[in-house]
Every structure is written in structure tokens, then in C-alpha cells.
Amino acid sequence: MRTGNVRIRTAVLALTLAGSLPVLSACGIRGTAVPVDAGGAPSRASCVARPEPSAGTGLTTVSVQLECASQLVPVTRRVPLPTTPDDATVVARTLLDELRRTPPTEEAEAGLVTAVPQRLSVSGPRPGDPAGTLRLGREPGDLPQVALAQVVCSFVGTAAADGKRTVVLGGPGDARPQSYACTEEMRTHPDTADISGSPVS
Description:
Helix content: 25-40%
Number of strands: 7
């Protein structure tokens, strides 16, 4: 009799454990007592806007960096052809004008924004500045982090930086201009990346 009871209890226990297994393994993820940072929720912004349509002759295409979903995204714009397209200061002003613009409706709906102050200006080098220096109307280090990343990554590789992968930026004060490179970290995390300049040799 006792043997029969033992067998019944064993069978009931086995069925109970078997029934609980799917519950324990359904999600396929092991429980942990340590909090896990899975990152931010996915953004619904498309970050893609169609290039502006051509409105006639005398226009050229430029690319500027806007922010979307906490990263920099290249955006194509159509602008009047500069009278001196190889002049670094003229090209820098053209690009800065586009960075300061409030994004048009289609870009805004795609989640594109700019952090560059609307009153920011740019001028050429002073006597004694390193070759290719561009002087901003505010000290680079005083700009919002994302704004500086936008300016640097929009200027590098263009005539504003003489086609180089770095751009020399100064401000209105007496501080020595510094060289800035657009790094992958700046493009993907412009709000936290290290955007400190380096001395110009």
C-alpha cells in the first residue's frame, strides 16, 4: 500500500514540474538580479527627407549635417551657386546658412532638427592665424555640443576646409584656433562625443 502511494506521489510531482517548464522557458531569457540597460526605445523618426527640388539654374547641391534620433544625418540642400566656389570663407558661410535654417516641413516631419544658433556667424582668418582658419562668432567650446558637431562635420571635406578631413576653427576672442576632426563618435553620439580641438602644427 505504501509503495502505491509513493508511486502516485512521484507521478503527480513529475506532472507538476513538467507543466511548469513551459512557463519557465517560454521567454527564452534567463532571469537576472542585475539591471540590464537595453538602450533607448526605438525612434519613429525616419531621418530621411527627399532632396529639395531644383528651382531653376544657378543652383548647386550641398550637404549639411542635421540631428535626428540623437545622431548626425547628412541632408542635401539646393543653394545659389557661390560666386567664388573655391573660397573657404564663402563656402563656410553658405553651409552655415543652411545649418542655421529651420528645417522645412518635410525634414521636420522626418525628425530632422538643427542645434546651430541662428545668429552664429563665420569669417576668415586674422593676421597670424594658421592657414585655413575660420573664425566663428562664438568660441567653439561655448557652442552647444551638437551644434559644434554639426559645424565640424559639415565643413570637413569641403572647400570650407580646403578639402581636408579636419577644419581649423577659432572664435571672436584671442584664443588660438584649434583643429577639429569629424569622428565616427561625433556622428553617432554628437551630444556626448569628445569634440575638443587639437593644436595646429
